[in-house]
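Lab notes, practical 5.
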Amino acid sequence: MCQREKVYVYGATIGVTRLLFSDPPLVSAEVRARAEDALISAAENVLRNGDSQTGIYYAAALGGVHDPRARGLLWSFVDRDVVTEESLIAISWFKNPADLPRLAGLLESPAHGDPMQTALASIPYAIHNGYGDAALPVLESAIRKSGYVWVQTACARELVMAGRKSGFAFISQAIEQNKSYRGEMVRFLQERFPELRGADDARVLGFLKSR
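Output from the prediction step:
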């Protein structure tokens, strides 16, 4: 496919995305429904002929579609390992309780390959943002079971912000065992709790264990 055609696919995807997410709405409900139908129908063409950035925008656009087929299409991308992370984020926007167990299963999965890969690292924030307190048990399970380091640290952040003991305990263990992500976790705490800025390990650990 020539570059010009890739640009056309990209431009069309961006145009429809802006149309669907506009606030206030730019079109009637009838026109929106037709635009959503066209967007869903274009899935294979976009994935086949668009570049990676177009795929990312396309998954995001589906997250704003009212048609229930969009959610199923996003899950099909996950199953095919196509724009996986962006599709999971978009799925969380639907806030459908039926999706939470499946999202939990992905977060809890053992590592396949490099445990330091970041493919799912943005999902703890996405599901906490989408599902609120209903996501906390999922995050507490994932922080124990996930085979991916950055999923665990992302869960720790969300759990600390929710005031859950499990998040504080995870960071305490990271400091005591001198984990590779120890420094990142301490910086997060110092940004979240200004009273810890400049604190030594003993003070940080005391703070964590008091929670």
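Observations recorded by the TA: The chain has a mean pLDDT of 90. The chain has two domains: 1-94, 102-211.
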